[in-house]
Amino acid sequence: MAAGKGTRLKSQLPKVLHEVGGKPLLEHVVRAAVHVVPANDVYVIIGHEAERVRAVTAHTGVNFVLQAEQRGTGHALMVASEALEGYDHVIVLSGDAPLITAETIERLRDFHLEERAAMTLLSADLENPMGYGRVLRKNPRSAEVQAIVEEKSATAAQKKIREINSGFYVFAVKELYENIGKLSTANAHGEYYLTDMAGVLNKSLPKGRQRVVAWKTANASEVLGGNTRAELAEIDEKMRMVKCRQLMAEGVTVFYPATCVIDADVEIAPDTVIEPHVQLLGKTRIGTGCRVRSYSVILNSEIGDGVLVRPGCVMEDARISAGAVLGPYSHLRPGSEIGEGAHVGNFVETKKIKLGKGSKANHLTYLGDSEIGAGVNIGAGTITCNYDGVNKHTTVIEDGVFIGSDSTLVAPVRVGKGAYVGAASCITADVPADALAVGRARQIVKDGWARVKRAGQGKK
Ligand code: UD1
Ligand code: CA
Question: I need a surface site. Which of 127, 271, 359, 366 has the fewest CB within 10 A?
Fold first, then answer.
């Protein structure tokens, strides 16, 4: 079920597209679902901003059912009746509860089948059950459930019940659809509540036949829903901590893990150290023996072994070879390929470049659309002028070149192997191998000029 608006988030974005752990809520739930049944047996009920939700989720290969008007969780299942024809049982998941695991769904399903129940709900004991539906058992030791009562309709005594309805269920399809028409909208929200099926089935099914039962999970945090921004933050924190613990178990050092933001798909080899306040996002992969210092934000990048990332580096779609040293404050934009043992220093921006083995660009430099060979030294303040206002052009700097500080290289241009470029040169034409190119005005010196100027102003 993923059709709701998520009013409590006060957002333009539909609830199930809000992210925790770097992914939309719904994607986490779908991931768990496709572990249990094949994607083509999964139906996502969409409604509010349906096309947006569909676009984000389509890559998972699941089916969609449109609930054009969102008249409650019971209504969501009414709309799905055609899609579910031909199935004996349906597992119903809430698209806003992303911590659910495939194992728990499977245990819920197995319990449902063993009990031969018409409806099985997943329950949990929560410290703070506020806002959740409460489970009214027939008696404390029985698996059988009398009814589920929503927070808004609960009596003071019922509100004290800590066993909550998680929003995950298994239904026998036949019993569900024979009786779903009996749901009513006579409640606080004027909606069809799926939770009311517990009471409905108890009334409708002949005694002694299939029943309504609950299976309680011991892992209560799995059922948390992200209905508010505060709940989203709490879930995100839990997920991040799970990821950090997993990395630590695999031999990665993470200092102050609570300050690090590491996405679920990030891979890090053992003996790498992640310092506080680091963000590792998307499909980033980091080798062994690296150190990523504080305040670096790394997205979809590949980092080889033994790389040192000094503080404050920003990287996206970059590839860093073994032994490279980056930062502090380097900005590696998409397509940056940094060679083995190369250095990229402070306030250096790179985009779509290859920097060869052992080459260095240590200070205050922009390198874009460039192929730079091995053993090259790029002086402080070097700029590749890759853009002429219309098109981008390439700068080629061959092996062993020395670019003096404050040079501008106006692309397209090539500096041949082993050549030197004098400091502060503006290079507009190719430089042959082993040459020296100097492209700047010759210095002039006027003896005594300053003294004469001061005298003219009445100063000594
Ligand atoms: C629901 C349960 C509550 C339970 C809680 C657990 C009902 C009436 N109440 O409350 O007992 O404790 O989940 O998290 O079911 N949705 C649709 N179509 C709709 C309405 C909702 O697809 O017309 C989807 C939402 O997008 C969401 C899910 O169903 O993913 C649950 O809806 P939500 O409004 O969050 O229900 P809760 O108030 O959390
Ligand atoms: Ca919810």
Answer: 127
* d(CA 55, ligand 2 centre) in Å: 22
The reported pLDDT for the residue numbered 457 is 85
Specify the pairing of strand 395-397 against strand 360-372. parallel
- Per-residue confidence (pLDDT) for residue 449, from 0 to 100: 97
pLDDT tens readout for residues 141-184: 899 999 999 999 999 999 999 999 999 999 999 999 999 999 99
For a mutational test of ligand 1's pocket, the pick from 1, 73, 92, 189, i.e. the residue with the most ligand atoms closer than 8 A to its C-beta, is 73
Compute φ and ψ for 109, nearest 5 degrees.
-60, -45
Q: Is the peptide bond before 24 cis (omega within 30 degrees of 0)?
A: no
| Ligand closest to the CA atom of residue 53 | 1
Using the mean position of ligand 2's atoms as its centre, give its distance from the Cα of residue 225 in Å: 5
Among all residues, which ones are annotated catalytic?
363
Question: Which parts of the chain register pLDDT below 70?
Answer: 210, 459-460
- Residue 18 and residue 84 in contact, taking contact as beta carbons nearer than 8 Å: no
Cβ(134) – ligand 1 distance below 6 Å: no
Query: How many Cβ atoms from other residues are within 10 Å of residue 77's Cβ?
Result: 25
| pLDDT value for 140 | 87
- Look at the alpha carbons of 214, 219, 225, 228 in this order and tell me if their dihedral is positive or negative: positive
Name the amino acid, one letter, at 366.
Answer: Y
Q: Which of 130, 219, 217, 112 is nearest to 169 (CA)?
A: 112
- The amino acid that residue 46 corresponds to is I
| pTM: predicted TM-score of the whole model, two decimal places | 0.89
Please list the residues that pair with 351 across neighbouring strands.
368
Q: Is the CB of 167 under 6 A from ligand 1?
A: yes
Q: What is the pLDDT of residue 372?
A: 98
Give the Å distance between the CA of 191 and the centre of ligand 1.
Answer: 11
Q: Which of 1, 53, 134, 153 to mutate to test the pocket of ligand 1 (most atoms within 8 A of CB)?
A: 1
Cα of 15 from ligand 2 centre, angstroms: 9
The answer, yes or no, to whether any atom of ligand 1 lies below 6 A from the CB of 381, is no
Burial of 2 (0-12, 13-18, 19+ CB in 10 A): buried
Ligand 1 within 6 A of CB of 224: no
